Amino acid sequence: MTLGRRSFAAGALAGVAAAGIRTQAVAAPFSPVAPDPVMLLVDPGAPPAFMAAAAGILAASRRSVIERRAGDGPRLAESVAWLGARPGRRIVGLLNDADAVLLDQLTRDGAIRCLSSAQHCESAGASRHRITALSSNAGLARLLAVELAAAGTNFSVASEAPGTPRMTAPLPKLPDQADPGGRGWEDTLGRVLAMIAAGSWPTRAPDVPSAFHGRGENSGTKTFALRSFVFAS
Amino acid sequence: MAEKYIALPAGVSERDFDAAIAEFRAALGDDNVYTEADRLAAYGKIMLPVPDAEHAPSAAISPRSVEQVQRCVAICNKYRVPVWPISTGKNLGYGSAAPGNRGQVVMDLRLMNRILEVDADLCTALVEPGVTYQQLYDYIAERKLPLWLSCPAPSAIAGPLGNTVDRGVGYTPYGEHFLFSCGMEVVMPTGEVLRTGMGSLPNSNTWQVFKWGFGPYLDGIFTQSNFGIVTKLGLWLMPAPPAFKSFVIRYEDEADIVAAVETLRPLRMANIIPNAVVISHALWECGTVAKRADYFTGPGSITDAAVARMARDRNVGIWNLYAGLYGSPEQIEVNWKIIQGAVKASGRGEILTAEQLDRDPVFKYRSDLMQGKMNVKEFGLYNWRGGGGSCWFAPVSQARGVEAKKQLAMAKTILDRYGIDYVAEFIVGWRDMHHIIDVLYDRTDAAQTKAANDCFTELLREFAAEGYGVYRANTAFQEEVANLYGDVKRDVNQKIKRALDPNGIIAPGKSGIWV
Predict the structure, then answer these.
(1) Which residues of B are the active-site residues?
(2) What pLDDT does A17 receive?
C-alpha cells in the first residue's frame, strides 16, 4: 500500500465543464464529499494516463490517494475489506476482466454502492465502450464519445440503463463551445471517475440509453479489454 | 425525472410494490432492502448474450433467518411479488446473481451464513445458503479436522448449498455434489418449513447420514427448480486420505480424445481412479493464462494451428487428463501400476506426475481442485478474449470415446460458424461425461454478442437433435432448454408448481417452470 501525490492537471476541470453536457438535474445535484482516502486500483497493463489523470483530480480535491496495482485474488479481497471498513471510502479502478469479475463478486454485500461501471475494449482497429448508466456517472458516455470523436478514431460508446432497453442514436451535434480536451479517452475516463469518487461530479438522472459511433482510423494492432468502476462504502 | 424503481415485477402495480417494499423493510430492516440502482448494479451483471434489462431486478432483500424468509414469503404471497432466491450468487456464466426474468426481487441469502454442524466421525456437515466453500474450508482447517471438501472451479467464493442445488460438480471422488448431499430444509411457498429425508422426524439424528427417509425422495425436486427456498443443506465430506497422488496424461492430437476416454472409463467404473476426472482441451489450459491476441488476430475462431503453437509454447497437451489417487500409499501404488499399464496398452498419452510438474501453475491449479483446495484461477478464462461475455454450454454424453469425438466435432463446427473458440473440457463421471464449453465473447461488440446468442441457440438445437441434452442452463436460455425436454416433463413440472406455489412467487420461470 503506497501513498502518492501528483500535481494538479491544470484545465482538467475546465475541460470537463466546457464539454457542454446537457442532462436534467435532480434535486440534490452533488453527491456527498468523500472524507476518506480514495484507492486507485489498476491493472498493471492499464494505460498510465488513466491513473495519472485520476490521481491528479484527487490531489486537486485534497483527497489522499492509495495507489494499488491489482495482482491476485487476495489483493482484491484486501482492497474490498479496506473499502468496507469505514463508510465514505471509494475505490476507483481499471482492471482486466478476470479481476473485475472477482471484484464484482466481492463487493456484492449491500453496503457497497456502485457509482460507475463500464467495459472498454479495443481490437481489430476499433475501440468499444459499454457503460452502465447510473445517476452518479451521468454524462460519462457522451463525454467519452466526444473525446474519441475529437481524436478521429473508430469507436462506439453504448450507454445502457439497468432497467430499460437500449436505443441507438446518432452522434449529436456538438455545442460550439465543446472542448474535447484532446487528452485521450483514458485520461478523460480517469478524470471523470476520480471526480465521481471525490464527489465533484454532479449526480443527475441517469443518461437515456444511447449509442454513439465514430468512423475514423485507429492505429493498427492495439488490443485490450478492461473494466472501469467506482465503488463506494 | 428519475424512475423510482429500475423495474417492476410483471403484473404488480407500483402501488402494490410500494406496499410490499414497505413491509419488507419492516420485516428485515432498511439496510437489508435495496431498490436504488447503485446498490442493485451488483445484481444485474449477467455475462449473457442478451440485454441486461431482461434480467434487471426490481429490488434485492436479504433475510437473516428462516423466520425472516417465512415473513418475506408471506409478503410475496400477499402482493404476488415474485422472488428469485440466491445463496452466494456466484452462478457465473449461468446468470450470476441476476433474476431469471426482469422485475423479480432477488432474495439474497448471503446473511444466512452459519455452519451449523460438522461431524468429523460421520464426515458430515450442515450449512446455510450463505456459507462459502472458503468459510467451510477455514472452519475445517482451524479445527484440524481430517476432512476434505469438493468444490467447483470458482471454489473460494462459491457456496456448497447453491452449487449443490444447481447440481454443480467438483473434481474429487465426491465431485457429483448432489449425490453427496444428505437432507435439506426448505421454506415452502406457503411458508411452511419442510425437512426432507430423516429430517422430518422430530429429534432425528440421522438427517445427514441417510438420504432417502421414508416415502417419495423429495430432495431432487428442490434442485434446479422453483418449488421452495432451500435454507439448510446436509453434505457428506470426504475423510482426508492418508496419501494423495495427482497426475496428468497429455495427448498430442484432438483425435486422441477417443483413446483417452476409452482408457479412462474402466478405471473410473472400477474406482481405480475415484475422482471426477477432467479432460481439458489445450485452449482451456492456456486460456486461463494466455491472451488470444498473442496467438491469433484473424477473423473467425482461432485456428487449430494457432492452438497447437500455444500448446507447445505452454508445454501442455492438446488434451490433458487430470486425475488423482486417494488412499494409503500401498493402495495408491497398486492402482498406479494398473493405470500405467492401461495407458501403455492404449499406445497414446504421456503420463506426468506432480514430482515432474510441481512448479507448473496449471498443474498445481488442477491438483489443488482435486484435493478440494480453494483458488480462483479459472477466472483467468475471462481474459482470453475479454469483453465480459461468458455462457456455459454443457451437454452430457456417454463416457465413450466415439461420443466425445462426435460432440467435439459438432461443437467445433457450430462454434466456428460464429467465430467463437472451442474452450472446453470433459468432466468424467462413472458412465457419463459433462462436456463443458465456455462460449466466450466480447459484450462491447454488438455483432459478437448477437453471434454468441445465435451460436448458443444453434448448439442447443443441434445437440438436442442428436439426443444430447444439457445438464444445466443459464437464465437466458432456460425456456428453450425446457422445451427440448418435451411437453410431458413440462406438464408434470407445472402441475407440481401449481400445487406447491399457486401464486407463482418463487423464481417463476426457473428451468422453464411457470404456474
Answers:
(1) 94, 471-472
(2) 33
Nearest CA in chain B to A133: B37
pTM: 0.91
Q: Do A120 and B444 touch (CB under 8 A)?
A: yes
Give bridge partners of residue B236 from the DSSP assignment. B124
Does CATH place domain B14-110 in 3.30.43.10? yes
Distances B38 to A111, A113, B14, B330 between C-alpha atoms, Å? 11, 5, 20, 58
- Ordered by start, the domain boundaries in chain B are 14-110, 115-239, 243-465
Chain B partners of A132 at a C-beta cutoff of 8 Å? 41, 44, 52
**Residue B409: is it exposed, middle or buried by C-beta count within 10 angstroms (0-12/13-18/19+)?**
exposed
Q: Quote ipTM for the complex.
A: 0.90
pLDDT at B333 over 80: yes
CATH topology for B243-465 is Vanillyl-alcohol Oxidase; Chain A, domain 3 (3.40.462)
- Please answer whether residues B196 and B220 qualify as being in contact, where contact means their C-beta atoms are separated by less than 8 angstroms: no
Of the candidates B243, B281, B229, the residue with the CA atom closest to the CA atom of residue B260: B281
pLDDT in tens, B158-202: 999 999 999 999 999 999 999 999 999 999 999 999 999 999 999
- CB proximity B217 to A under 8 Å: no
Question: How many angstroms separate the CA atoms of B175 and B169, rounded?
Answer: 5
Strands A224-232 and A113-123: antiparallel
Q: In this model, does residue B328 exceed pLDDT 70?
A: yes
Convert the pLDDT of each residue in A199-228 to its tens digit. 989 888 788 888 888 887 666 566 889 999
Bridge partners (DSSP) listed for residue B388: B442
User: Is domain B115-239 in CATH 3.30.465.10, yes or no?
Assistant: yes
Helix (H, G, I), strand (E, B), or coil: what is residue B313? Answer: helix
Q: What is the largest CA-CA distance in chain A?
A: 49
Write out the E strands in B82-164.
83-86, 105-108, 115-119, 124-127, 147-148
Q: A165 to chain B nearest CA, in Å?
A: 6
For the record, the C-alpha cell of B452 comes out as 454468441
Find the closest chain A residue to B386 by CA distance. A225
The closest of B354, B82, B120 to B229, measured between CA atoms, is B82
User: CA-CA distance, A147 to A141, in Å (whole number)?
Assistant: 10
Instruction: Please check the confidence at residue B142 and state whether its pLDDT lies above 50.
Output: yes
Instruction: Decide: B261 and B433 in contact? Cβ < 8 Å.
Output: yes
d(CA B314, CA A111): 42
Secondary structure of residue B333 in the 3-state scheme: helix
Where in chain A are the domains?
Answer: 2-232
Residues in chain B closer than 8 A to A107 (CB atoms) = 42
The rounded distance, in Å, linking the Cα atoms of A100 and A230 is: 12
> Which residues of chain A, if any, have pLDDT below 70?
1-35, 72-73, 163-182, 217-222
